[in-house]
Amino acid sequence: MLYYYDNHNKYEAGCDEAGRGCLAGPVTAAAVIFDGNYKNKWIKDSKKLNENNRNELRIEIEQAALSWSVAFVDSKSIDKINILNASILAMHQAIDNLQITPDFILVDGNRFKPYNNIPYQTIIKGDGKYMSIAAASILAKTHRDEYMMALHQKFPQYDWLNNKGYPTKKHREAIARYGTCIHHRKSFNLLPPEQLKLDL
């Protein structure tokens, strides 16, 4: 069972992101506020859940949360401001879109920038410790996966239906063969040096 950070905070928003290590597509962040009495033993770090479980919990989280939001920062912006700043920007935008202003912000990881003078705490592996962060990780992951599956319809050669933009062998082979598209992060190392010479 995951917990709340501090029950003295009436509205505690958990934040997390997905897609930071991808070669293509947006970085996606979510923010979630639960009622302090809400409990769900199945909510955990999205990486420890299979796809079906994540999608089922997404429905539960969106129905149970007092407020939730998801935000996307595209590859062009990632290339312009770098992935760390883009991840924090996505989290800020997710908090912007909440219908409730949080009293406190919980962030997975160790990097964040102040948001509107609201107190916050960064927590390494927070998605395995606090329910609001775990819920945010599930929403960020499922919404981003859905987005990449839609992009796959226009760019099927990159196999985003299966790899969601992550650096799989098939994805990198497709980049070597077909080149990049508008959704690739040009500032990333899209191909390792040895693959640049592959005769495909």
Q: In words, what does this structure look like?
A:
By secondary structure, the chain is α/β, with parallel strands linked by helices. The protein has 2 domains: 12-147, Ribonuclease H-like superfamily/Ribonuclease H (Nucleotidyltransferase, domain 5, 2-Layer Sandwich), CATH 3.30.420.10; 156-193, no CATH class. The protein has helices spanning 51-64, 75-81, 83-96, 131-152, 160-163, 169-178; strands at 12-18, 27-33, 67-73, 104-108, 120-123. The protein has a 5-stranded mixed beta sheet, sandwiched between helices. It is globular.
Q: Can I get a quick summary?
A:
Helices cover 36% and strands 15% of the residues.
Characterize the overall form. Answer: globular
CATH architecture classification of the largest domain: 2-Layer Sandwich
The gyration radius over C-alpha positions equals: 18 Å
Number of domains: 2
What order do the helices and strands come in, and which of them pair?
Blueprint: E1 12-18, E2 27-33, H1 51-64, E3 67-73, H2 75-81, H3 83-96, E4 104-108, E5 120-123, H4 131-152, H5 160-163, H6 169-178
Parallel strand pairs: 1-4, 4-5
Antiparallel strand pairs: 1-2, 2-3
Helix pairs in contact: 1-4, 2-3
Characteristic terms for this protein:
15% strand; alpha/beta; 2 domains; globular; 5 strands; 200 residues; Nucleotidyltransferase, domain 5; 5-stranded mixed sheet; 6 helices; single chain
